[in-house]
Design goal:
PA28_N_sf; PA28_C; Proteasome_activ_sf; mainly alpha; proteasome; elongated; single chain; 2 domains
Length: 246
């Protein structure tokens, strides 16, 4: 029973090694080319930044006009619509007159385009980590130059994985921040600065996503470069370990 389990673990390790080498030698160069083409496509053209904005679908209401004996229109509206209000920061907000205030579809399109590459790099860097870890020989005195190369490459793969994960967090923070600004526009529709802040945020996100695309390309290229340059030492860190590794 124990031997059967050990054989399965051994087969799993060998499979992981083969898949990781295929990823490094074949997939990484393809992803570098794909992301470089995407970065230079119309989707990420800096000329597009002026048209990246999208209407928040919250009209500016007419100014409330009332005399000293008349109750303010805004107060009447809040009382009449009490059953359909949203409570944000302790203030009542009447439901939006035009319905939903949508996300920026142009930004969403870019995010959906980049997400698969982010997820793929996360998975690939993790697989490369496991591959190198399985190739590290047992601890011995001396002849550790190849092992130090393995450890440096392993550290690079870990850093790539960590930095790539932050891209997903950044996308989430954008939607949260934009939603809060939309809420401000809903509460204070006459304040132009809140509307402008959404435009500025969308422009900033466009530039950030362009940088994300650039970083993804660079991370694929860097990880591929460092492994290819040292692949012999990564595969066989010590000449005395040839029989152990193969």
């Amino acid at each position: 029973m124990a031997q059967a389990v050990n054989d399965k673990v051994k087969d799993f390790k060998e499979k992981c090694k083969k898949e990781a080498e295929h990823i490094v030698l074949e997939v990484f160069p393809e992803k570098v080319k794909e992301l470089d083409d995407l970065l230079h496509s119309d989707m990420f053209s800096l000329k597009r930044i002026s048209s990246i904005h999208h209407d928040v679908n919250i009209p500016v209401p007419d100014p409330a006009l009332f005399n000293d004996t008349e109750e303010p229109t805004s107060k009447k509206r809040r009382i009449d619509s009490e059953k359909n209000h949203l409570d944000i920061s302790g203030s009542l907000i009447v439901g939006l007159p035009n319905g939903v205030s949508p996300s920026n579809p142009k930004i969403c399109e870019i995010i959906e385009k980049l997400k698969p590459s982010i997820m793929e790099l996360l998975e690939s860097s993790n697989q490369v980590k496991m591959w190198i870890t399985y190739l590290i020989p047992r601890i011995e005195d001396g002849n550790n130059f190849g092992v130090s190369i393995q450890e440096d490459t392993l550290a690079e793969a870990r850093q790539v994985e960590s930095e790539t994960a932050t891209f997903l967090d950044q996308m989430t923070r954008y939607f949260i921040h934009r939603g809060k600004l939309i809420s401000k526009v809903a509460k204070y529709p006459h304040v132009a600065d809140y509307r402008q802040s959404i435009r500025e945020l969308d422009e900033k996100e466009f530039i950030t996503l362009r940088l994300v695309c650039c970083e993804l390309r660079n991370q694929y290229a860097t990880l591929h470069d460092i492994i290819i340059k040292n692949i012999n030492k990564i595969r066989i860190p010590r000449s005395s370990n040839v029989e152990q590794l193969y």
